[in-house]
From TrEMBL:
UniProt keyword Cytoplasm present: yes
Membrane-traversing stretches: none
Gene source species: Croceibacterium atlanticum
Signal sequence extent: none
Subcellular location, record wording: Cytoplasm
Catalytic activity entry: dTTP + H2O = dTMP + diphosphate + H(+); UTP + H2O = UMP + diphosphate + H(+)
GO cellular component: cytoplasm
InterPro entries: ITPase-like_fam, Maf-like
Site feature: Important for substrate specificity: R17, T74, Q157
Protein name: dTTP/UTP pyrophosphatase
């Protein structure tokens, strides 16, 4: 096993949520190095495969010979359809209408790249069901602005949590970093986590 006390961790993400989640398990990255990659899904790519590929590519893009690199990606899917990160109100509104009253899946994949090139990966799959949303509820959520830049057009850690009737799986995975899987992955690489 590697000597965790002397290991450094680079987080390949600019997401403050991922940093906050890592802090919950006692991990503070030595460096933040967001990976700038093309996040366009491949034609007919399944959501699970897409999330895994994105996490892997982000880790590889931020490779660091002096540190482990942790990368993650979250994909929200209705059936085989990968929902976009909402960058405008209409996209967020379409996503919320599509998910209203039905289940969707959230795939949260993480990849840990060691300085020697060894790649470890884990995947979390969570099912989430929104209540049937009225036009007024959707409009109020859009007005909040918290959907901006979020996969599927919502943030479970915010106001949207009050609209979710049921969840099965990892709440932290829906936020953006599945803590159970992340902890297991870091421990397997020798990081000292209690």
């Amino acid at each position: 096993m590697e000597n965790g006390a002397q290991q450094a961790l680079t987080l390949a993400s600019a997401s403050p949520r991922r940093r906050e989640l890592l802090a919950r398990i006692g991990i503070e990255p030595a460096r933040i190095a967001p990976a700038d990659i093309d996040e366009t899904p491949h034609k007919a790519e399944l959501p699970r495969v897409y999330a895994q590929r994105m996490a892997r590519e982000k880790a590889l893009a931020a490779a660091d010979p002096s540190a482990h690199v942790l990368a993650g990606d979250t994909a929200v899917a209705v059936g085989r359809r990968i929902l976009p990160k909402a960058e405008d109100e209409e996209t967020a509104r379409q996503c919320l209408r599509l998910m209203s009253g039905r289940r969707h899946r959230v795939f949260s994949s993480i990849a840990l790249l060691a300085p020697d090139g060894t790649l470890r990966e884990r995947l979390s799959e969570t099912q989430v069901r929104f209540k049937r949303l009225s036009d007024e509820e959707i409009a109020a959520y859009i007005e909040s602005g918290e959907w901006h830049g979020k996969a599927g057009g919502y943030a479970i850690q915010g106001r949207a949590e009050g609209l979710i009737a049921w969840i099965s799986g990892s709440h932290s995975g829906v936020v953006g970093l599945p803590l159970f899987e992340t902890r297991a992955l870091l421990r397997s690489a020798g990081f000292p986590i209690g």
